[in-house]
Amino acid sequence: MKPRSKRLMLVGGGVALLVAAIALVLSAFQQNLVFFHTPTEVAEGKAPLGKTFRVGGMVEDGSIRRAGDGLTVSFAITDTAKVIPVSYKGTLPDLFKEGKGAVVQGRLEADGVFHATEVLAKHDENYMPPEAAHAVEQASKAAETLSQ
Amino acid sequence: MQWESWSAFWEMGGAAGFVWGSYGVTFLLVALELVLVLRRRKEAVRKLLRWRRAIGKDRNGRTDARMESQ
Amino acid sequence: MTPSDRGRSLFRFAAPQVFYPLAGRLAPWFAALAAVLTLAGLWLGFFVAPTDATQGEVYRVIFIHVPAAWMSMFIYLIMAFWAAVGLVMNTRLSFIMSQALAPTGAMFCFVALWTGALWGKPTWGAYWVWDARLTSQLLLLFLYLGFIALTRAIEDPRRADRAGAIIALVGAVNVPIIYFSVQWWNTLHQGASVSLTKAPSMATTMLAGMLVMALAAWAYTIAVVLWRVRPMILERERHTEWVGALLDQESTERGGRA
Fold first, then answer.
1. Which alpha helices (H) appear in chain A, and where do they start and end?
2. CATH code at A39-122
3. Where are the domains of chain B?
4. Which ranges sit in the Extracellular compartment (chain A) (predicted)?
5. ipTM of the complex, rounded to two decimals
């Protein structure tokens, strides 16, 4: 009796795992493959307004303002075409910076401000020492000055 | 050399828990897998010797199980 | 030597009684290679590679995370390959190889998820998010565990082989999904730093550390799988002459208790 019940448990476990796997895939295909919407998509009405969703893009330069309580922050997320103002109360990840990527989760309220409940920093796939990063920054500044 | 001292090395710029937590668990799992894998052959031989004795006796009362092979 | 002769001499290694001692002789060499490469990779990763400009020291998780993630995907593909060979050619050893790979693949898959969580918290601000990359990698772990559970649960080895081979082949579809998820969909996970189509976007010493660790993971996998496949061969081939002879030898070495 014992080996049979063991076998049954293993088969049951295997089936349960497979079912969990399929359920995971299906739910992922439904909502999570689009982890975030861009500000342009939101402007075009492609985001599920009225529900909680995520917006991803760049934190606009010079947009971060901290309120007097030291916890509430407002900033703007942009994909260079459209801009969405965001307000958030809570701690920000270390890599959250102006000019860097971020994904915010929350709701777009009637006042046109996105009220975020969670802020995630999105970094790129470039890894370099600080000196190299500094050099890249200098080069892009130089290019900007030349183009002006 | 990237580090000013050994204590700076262990601190990992304040990310000690994340970095050492990653490396620690990984090497623990590797060690565990090695132990299990190396023990498994001895267990298999022991199990097969026991199996051979069992079928040797069950089928024809002899201990030489090679008579059983097809 | 005619082509068919050469073919046969290569197939000789597919015979379990030839492969069993060969695996035993090769495994320690790959294990030693893995140890040397790991030490070299850790040295490069911790003492030669510089700090990252945006992430600081925490990026050093990459030297484990990326090799483990690569390995978890490669191993699944190799598993599927052996499963396919087994189904088509009906060779005994192929299915055993496929099953010997699974636990190590599952281990690397878990390591990729674990180190990813510990890396995600200080950089992204979350241990886990349900984006396409992370979700499909979690699915890979479930596929590994499902494969292991299924092949162990079915008593008849021939049916277990076939059932496992089907999971291995169907699940292989998930591997390109994992790999390309960061290009196909909006994910929190960043794109690939190293790929065949573009120059790597990493400082050279960082890249060197990562690649050496990846080679170490390869050597380790080969060693462990060769060790794991040996007892599996013995169990499967227990009715054969050569395993009988081998057991005779083992039992006299144990003082003739048999």
1. 2-27, 39-43, 130-147
2. 2.40.50.140
3. 38-70
4. 29-148
5. 0.88
